[in-house]
Design brief:
Blueprint: E1 4-7, H1 8-14, H2 19-31, E2 43-47, E3 52-59, E4 66-75, E5 89-94, E6 100-105, H3 109-126, E7 133-137, H4 141-153, E8 158-162, H5 166-180, E9 183-186, H6 190-194, E10 199-202, E11 221-224, H7 237-242, E12 245-248, H8 251-254, H9 258-263, E13 271-274, H10 275-279, E14 293-296
Parallel strand pairs: 1-6, 7-8, 7-10, 8-9, 10-11, 11-14, 12-13, 12-14
Antiparallel strand pairs: 2-3, 3-4, 4-5, 5-6
Length: about 300
């Protein structure tokens, strides 16, 4: 049996971050509404001495001809030696025989697109329709793609970027201004970036909150992308306690990993629900301007398939 091998360059030509990709990820989230999806827990390997982590993820949707296994390393010291912090590959196997059908040597590109599209799905369903100001925490590839994806579903005209490395934030702001044709500025303080933003997106590997509850304003939508393991934490737990609605792409995962893991407490009485319940309108969806809506997006393997 012939195995197809696709490189990152080939995949970039085949898969782009557009509305079609957003709709594909939206459909993948909806499949989680059924009991037929087989999605085992994420296998994780930590390599602490090199600031590294490796995740292995997979899922199977009955009826599809194939399923993917993704290997996703993140080595956060790599930029210091001139290498990207993330890379990886996907293996596509036959659902009928288990034989390998394709190797997707994407170096993390497909994951980047998927993750950005997931942020767009969240904003499409939960952010105010007239959202025009965005704040992005982080200045890496995902920060850039999140803003690009957000502009597919909301009329963003201005954006602010904050990062621990101010120089990187300024470079990202200049490049995004040229790329997207909107005003993007770098902020020295997180509070400055968050003030007046309609949508706030966090894309950092922080292990202590970078977004404080006292900075938040009524009507803001928050998409938190970075906290994918137990020790990571981008949002002040009190920010979640203040929210009217908390949406997770997988409640089982986010109760164990990420923001909800840090915020579960008896005083949290707001609604907590999976994203598919919002998408399928199995809940009353009221998006008044006096509400705060955080969305937690983890890497759900179904969306990789």
């Amino acid at each position: 049996m012939k195995t197809t091998i696709l490189t990152q360059h080939q995949l970039r030509n085949l898969v782009t971050l557009d509305l079609e990709a957003v709709c594909c990820v939206e459909h993948a989230f909806l499949t989680l509404a059924t009991d037929r999806v087989v999605m085992p827990p994420i296998l994780r390997l930590d390599i602490f001495e090199h600031r590294g982590e490796v995740d292995v993820k997979t899922a199977y949707v009955p009826g599809l001809d194939g399923f993917a296994i993704k290997i996703s390393p993140g080595f956060f010291g790599n930029p210091e030696i001139g290498l990207p912090s993330t890379n990886g590959l996907m293996i596509l196997l036959s659902s009928k025989t288990g034989l390998v059908q394709a190797l997707l040597l994407d170096n993390g590109y497909l994951t980047d697109v998927r993750t950005a599209a997931a942020g767009a799905v969240a904003a499409m369903h939960l952010a105010r329709d007239d959202a025009s100001v965005a704040a992005v925490f982080g200045a890496g590839m995902q920060a850039r793609l999140q803003l690009q994806a957000l502009m597919l579903v909301r009329p963003i005209r201005k954006a602010r970027i904050w990062a621990r490395d101010q120089a990187k934030a300024e470079i990202a702001a200049r490049e995004l201004t040229d790329q997207l044709g909107i005003s993007v500025v770098a902020c020295e303080a997180q509070e400055e970036a968050a003030a007046g933003a309609h949508v706030i997106i966090t894309t950092t590997p922080a292990d202590s909150p970078v977004l404080k509850a006292q900075w938040l304003e009524s009507g803001q939508h928050i998409t938190a992308m970075g906290s994918d393991v137990e020790h990571k934490n981008e949002l002040d737990p009190q920010a979640i306690a203040r929210a009217d609605l908390y949406v997770a792409d997988s409640l089982a995962q986010t109760r164990r990993l990420g923001e909800l893991h840090h915020a579960i407490m008896p005083s949290c009485h707001h609604a907590i629900m999976p994203s598919w319940q919002v998408q399928s309108r199995r809940m009353p969806l009221f998006l008044s301007l006096d509400r705060l809506f955080p969305v937690r997006s983890l890497a759900v393997p179904t969306t990789d398939r």
